[in-house]
């Protein structure tokens, strides 16, 4: 399974959206969602892999691509220390977005996930599609005026 994710807000903070492209052999699934109220780029970047991993019905090996160094570094380098320190940073401050980090950890635990960083807006087709889906998710959330 290969997953590309993206998220963002306009403005930041502001309404936001997330998008994910899931590929397994010849099957492709596109997902998006968003929030019409105040959210942040980082929250939307986290929601994309959470939603993509949570939709998988059985444990699989996943190559997950994100253009967010915050998400990739957080899940591969920082999260174990945060958990060990009671969800406090090295500076003894509460971890931001702890609810989503915990949810992402749970979602990852079901699968074997390898994380990759990809440069955003650099012509990687599925990253570009994830960006389009994130924008669609934000626009749909704004149009509905509700949290998706």
TrEMBL record:
Protein residues bound to Mg(2+) 1: 6, 45, 67
Subunit architecture: Monomer.
Enzyme class: hydrolase
Residues making up the signal peptide according to the UniProt record: none
Lineage of origin: Bacteria, Bacillati, Actinomycetota, Actinomycetes, Mycobacteriales
UniProt binding sites for Mg(2+) 2: 6, 131
Stated family: Belongs to the RNase H family.
A single BP term in Gene Ontology: DNA replication, removal of RNA primer
Name of the molecule in the record: Ribonuclease H
SUPFAM superfamilies: Ribonuclease H-like
Superkingdom of source: Bacteria
Annotated NCBIfam families: PRK00203.1
Role noted for this protein: Endonuclease that specifically degrades the RNA of RNA-DNA hybrids.
Residue ranges annotated for the RNase H type-1 domain, each copy included: 1-139
Cofactors: Mg(2+)
Classification via HAMAP family: RNase_H
GO cellular component: cytoplasm
Keywords carried by this UniProt record: Cytoplasm, Endonuclease, Hydrolase, Magnesium, Metal-binding, Nuclease
Organism whose genome encodes this protein: Mycolicibacterium rhodesiae (strain NBB3)
Cofactor note: Binds 1 Mg(2+) ion per subunit. May bind a second metal ion at a regulatory site, or after substrate binding.
Compartment(s) where it occurs, according to its Swiss-Prot or TrEMBL record: Cytoplasm
Reaction(s) the record says it catalyses: Endonucleolytic cleavage to 5'-phosphomonoester
């Amino acid at each position: 399974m290969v997953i590309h994710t993206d998220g963002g807000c306009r403005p930041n903070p502001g309404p936001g959206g997330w998008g994910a492209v899931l590929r397994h052999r010849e099957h492709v699934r596109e997902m998006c969602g968003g929030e019409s109220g105040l959210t942040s780029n980082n929250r939307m970047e986290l929601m994309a892999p959470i939603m993509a991993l949570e939709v998988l019905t059985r444990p699989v090996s996943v190559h997950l691509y994100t253009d967010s160094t915050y998400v990739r570094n957080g899940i591969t380098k920082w999260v174990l220390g945060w958990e060990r320190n009671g969800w406090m940073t090295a500076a003894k401050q509460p971890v931001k977005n702890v609810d989503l980090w915990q949810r992402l950890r749970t979602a990852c635990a079901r699968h074997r996930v390898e994380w990759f960083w990809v440069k955003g807006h650099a012509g990687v087709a599925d990253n570009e599609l994830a960006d389009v889906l994130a924008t669609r998710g934000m626009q749909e959330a704004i149009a509905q005026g509700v949290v998706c």
